[in-house]
Amino acid sequence: MKGSFNFKYNTDLCFYSGNNVAGTFSLILGKKHKVDYLNLCLKGKSQVTITRSDSNPDGTSSSRIYVSRVNFVAGQVTLFENKELESGLHEIPFNIKIPYDWPNTFKSVHGEIKYKIRVHVKIPWTCIRKYRQFVTILPVFLPSLKSSYISKPMPIRETKHMFLILRCISFGASKIVFEVQPLRNVFCMNEDVEFDVKVENKSSTDINHFQVEFIRYCSFEAQRLNDHTKKFISTNNFYDQVKQNQTRTINFSIPIPLMSATLNENNFKGANIKVEYKIKIIAFGTNRKAKFSFPVYITGPRLNLETSISDNKNSFNFAGKPLAIL
């Protein structure tokens, strides 16, 4: 007994949420078989694995592994129940729509989200024959985000102190007032995170330049334990000066690569993996610096789909590529 998958229209096995995964499963029987059932579905799993080391009373240590899983199933069908199949080739077509609310494929040190087309064939008095083919689900701009994309957010204002670069000590008049005005509430991959920063320098030193860091924060939960990772997506330097008692507005633009979208309880119910992004701005003076950060919501690229925003200037239609492991 042999089984194989043949996919239509998509040879790289990369799909967007809302796409259909279409193809054929071919089952080849060398002889006549009675079959209890054949079960086919698109299945996903979000799994987190956290390892903790504990000290024992005798001075030794032991490790415990904590695991949590969230499962996804779509397009499940059961065929050939209690039927006898002739020898030869049996082709089972499938066409399964990927739900819009499924999170994108993801992989990190503590967890992963992965998907597969899975077929189980049960022959009486034998083990279940299992066949699978992994597929990649890429993030895409969702119709529900349209209003957030086109609306302008409120500015974010905060006062920070200039600290000595090597010590967390500030002296005298050392305040820097940051007021950030993001271009929008939601940013799409293959576009830029654009924002204006109004900087009011109330410190006793000139600001010589700015460093802007684009950072991804991941949190993982398994059996009430949590772990976290931090990854710098990019770091850019901008040599704009703001002198003492001066106020300037500076425009920043940070490219967004193809990567995981923001994942939280709003778009991933029961999430055991959360992905968030922040922009950190560091203002450098003479031997001093001030830091300010704000969150950004990242979603997939806008494609030329009926449900996406039709805007020739900002529409994208590119071949799907596997997500980088960031």
Written account of the structure:
- This is Arrestin_C domain-containing protein.
- It comes from Rhabditophanes sp. KR3021.
- The longest helix is centred in the middle third of the chain and has 5 residues.
- 2% of the residues lie in helices and 59% in strands.
- Strand 9 and strand 10 form a beta hairpin.
- The chain has one helix and 21 strands.
- Strands 2, 5, 6, 9, 10 and 11 form a six-stranded mixed beta sheet that branches. Strands 13, 15, 17, 18, 20 and 21 form a six-stranded mixed beta sheet that branches. A four-stranded antiparallel beta sheet has the order 12-14-16-19, with no helix packed on it.
- The protein folds into two domains: 137 residues, Immunoglobulin-like; 157 residues, Immunoglobulin-like (Sandwich).
- By secondary structure, the chain is mainly β.
- The C terminus is likely disordered.
Write the layout of secondary structure elements.
Blueprint: E1 2-7, E2 14-16, E3 20-29, E4 33-35, E5 37-55, E6 61-79, E7 83-85, E8 88-97, E9 106-107, E10 111-122, E11 129-138, H1 146-150, E12 156-161, E13 163-164, E14 174-182, E15 186-188, E16 192-203, E17 209-222, E18 225-238, E19 247-255, E20 273-285, E21 288-299
Parallel strand pairs: 2-11, 15-21
Antiparallel strand pairs: 1-3, 3-8, 4-7, 5-6, 5-10, 9-10, 10-11, 12-14, 13-21, 14-16, 16-19, 17-18, 17-20, 20-21
